[in-house]
Known about the structure:
alpha+beta, 11-stranded mixed β-sheet, two-stranded antiparallel ribbon, 13 strands, 55% helix, flat, LPG_synthase_C, cell membrane, Rhomboid-like_sf, transmembrane helix
Amino acid sequence: MKGVLRLAERQPFALGYAALILVTAFIADAVRMPAGRIHLLVGTGYDSVVHLGRWWSPLGSVFFTAGSAQLVVVLVAAVLVLGSAERLMGSARTVVAFVTTAVLGPGIGILLQSVGVAGGELWSQHVRGLWVIDPLTPITGSIMAASCFAGPLWRRRIRVVTLASVLMLVLYSGQPADLYRLVAALAGWGLGFAFQPRPVRFMWRRSSHHETRTLLAAVVGVLALGPVVTSFSGGRFGILAPLGLLFNPDFSGAGIERDRCLFGDVTLQCVHELTLERLGGVGPVLVSLLPLLVLLVAAYGLSRGRRFAAWLAIGVNLGLAALGAWYYGLLPISGQSFVWHPHATRYWEIALTLVVSVLVPAATAVVLVLNLKQFPVRSRPGGPRRFALTAAATLLVLSTVYVGLGGLLRSGFSPQPSFLDLLADVPERFIPVGFLRIERVSFLPTNWLTGTLYHWVGPVFWIVVIVGAILCLRAAPVGANPEHARTLRTLLEAGGGGSLAYLATWAGNSYWFAPSGTTMIAYRVVNDVAITTSDPIGPDTDVPEAIAEFATMCDDHGWIPVFYSLHERWQGLFAEMGWQTMSVGEETVLRPRLWDTTGKKWQDIRSSINRADRAGVRAEWTSYRALPVLESLQIAEISEQWVQEKGLPELGFTLGGIDELRDPDVRLMLAVDADDRVHAVTSWMPSYREGVIVGWTLDFMRRRPDSMNGVMEFLIAQTARMMSERPEIEFLSLSAAPLAHTEELPGRLLDFVGRVLEPVYGFHSLLAFKRKFQPEFQPLFMAYPEPVALPAIGVALARAYLPDLSVREALAFVRGLG
């Protein structure tokens, strides 16, 4: 009960609106008023406003629902979506946004319809008689207005998902209600800017890699549902309705209409209703919907950063675009008798509809290609190859079975097909039946056995594709062989590798194990340069031999071996090998057993602790998996804000992001206030010796822009204080600021890279921050075989830290070395 009362206090308007919707639905049910009658009484639309003069209907129609299904959807949307809007921007602004968008959405939409009707535009003429009851219109407008009050993470998510959803409905369904929601969303977005007291800055803000993947996955998933919307929509008027209709297994005879279309007499009715007389059933439904399920599987893989999922989505979208172009005769040579002639495009809407139906999946594929670098997790070499071979083999076997058994059972078809007829019919068994509407039926099955063969080879193929895709996505990626991962964990827990050894567990690394099995080296190959991520992991006595063998392996592959972020104790070994070494930074290390904040040098740290106490901010030691959902969402939002403040993409390689926090062995130290609002977060990676954690290394640091001054100093100080009470903890590493040094970096290469990135990422400022804790400075160096490789190494390092680095930017690094 307390939870309900607290919810009512935070979103009274949303709950009141939901209650009012329930009351009107109850009254309509009590008087047994059918949905059609409700539409005529309170619905809005072109005829309602323009012809009948019901100027009040846009606002009045949002307080009623037509049918139990819409009632459930509206109630959920009112409580969750409208309630979220109210919590973000307050009740007063929510009421204003609700009423304003309830009027502007249908109002502007009807005005556009009026212009279309006056100009003879086909869509406006066909939907002029449709009346709308849609409470979702002002709810959509309200949440878009509230997005201006959300943090960067949810602001972008709300806008992308909302606009993608309403655009999908407009393009695929195309009913007046869909247009009104789109107008309401845009109006709400503008209203949210008007509510803001600060000036509006129209600029592109960069997303983190994690968030970019999430948004692309959401868009692909929403677009995959579009054809389903068309298939089950009561009205198919959207500009992409033809593409959706290609997946629609509901066939009826087109008769004269089909013949008229075949002769090029094109009408909107032709585009929407041209069909063939084919048998229905579960098979045609599955072969129409399963390719869309493949897209949903790909969308899941995209959210996990899998490169295979990106290529899968690209392939399916290109296939849809090609089939659409082939079906509508947009390809120069389509082999179809049904080709659009110049005089057939006298209705420009039809021509636009057909072109856009092809361009949308093609554009989706292009966007994914341009963002392939956002999906760095590659499947092991055998995975995609097995998937492709399995799909091809399944296609070949099913085709052979269809032709072979069909020949033996040809008496079960009418008319009886020849071998060539069966062979020519093979492609049609695997293509969504909607793509075949203009194909004349050569033969049809007449009994259950031939019917099963005819309808089910296609679904079996697509089921195999879906299962294969899921297995490929579930398989371990490159560098994540389960056996290798277990061995790596065993070596880490045994000790060795130094304070940065845990970097080896991150996604994107490849693993090389010494023949003895006691030593492992984690590395990444960038532009044929193999860059290690830390010291070799294993007993010190085995490391020299492992380094030599790893260098030999790299030479066998044509790679340049580069040992990066090594501790000083290994420098003599490389000098004996005749390799070149170069300082790349300094690690800052604290000794918890000696932790003491007394003295003038520690004034900033003490002030930060006292400031946190006065503000009621506490330090919370936890793990990502143990976080409540709200706290994990806040961490993602804080990280997104941090990324947006930068002028360059999120760094990688030796700097972790949100994905690295999910490791169960990584710990978080959060700054949380009395209202459970997270102000800042740090992450700490463990270092082991004989199975016991003997140290922690700082990795992830993010804070809210409006958090108290010194919140990071507070978190690190509280971590050091807590570790000082644990006698087994020997060190607390604040890690290294990449490419920063207490003195000028020796070597022109890394000095140049550091200077270029310094204005944006502030490596030297980060090093200065860490000096507040009076740490020990432990030099880190890089070892490489010969100076002539420095330009290639410089570009490889730049690309390791910035995977999105363009060719032009990479060349700038090389020119800077001259």
